[in-house]
Amino acid sequence: MAKKCWRLKQKQKAKFSSRKYNRCSITGRRRAYIGRFGISRIQFREMALNGEIPGVTKASW
């Protein structure tokens, strides 16, 4: 889990546009962010396996 102060800082408007960065909306994780879903890879995997993300299925071949 990310620190609470980092989450709050990220929600504020950046002074310069190049300082913006993405965070997971659930955990606040900064790395491995999937922009299409707005969450980190770890949360994406858990939610996909639980069927909480429509249209996403586990690959098998």
How is this fold's topology laid out?
Elements: H1 4-11, E1 33-34, E2 39-40, H2 41-50
Antiparallel strand pairs: 1-2
Describe the 3D structure.
- Helix content is 30%, strand content 7%.
- With 61 residues, the protein is mainly alpha-helical.
- A two-stranded antiparallel ribbon has the order 1-2.
- The mean pLDDT is 85.
- A hairpin with a 4-residue loop joins strand 1 (33-34) and strand 2 (39-40).
- The relative contact order is 0.15.
Notable characteristics:
mainly alpha; 2 strands; elongated; single chain
Low-confidence stretches: none
**Average pLDDT metric:** 85
Helix amount: 25-40%
β-strand number: 2
Number of helices: 2
What is the radius of gyration computed over CA atoms, rounded to a whole number of angstroms?
A: 14 Å
H-E order: HEEH
Through-space gap between termini: 34 Å
- Strand order, main sheet: write it out: 1-2
Which structural class should the secondary elements be placed in?
mainly alpha
Summarize the biggest pleated sheet: 2 strands, antiparallel
Beta-strand share of residues: 5-15%
Shape: elongated
Q: What is this structure, in a nutshell?
A:
By secondary structure, this protein is mainly alpha-helical.
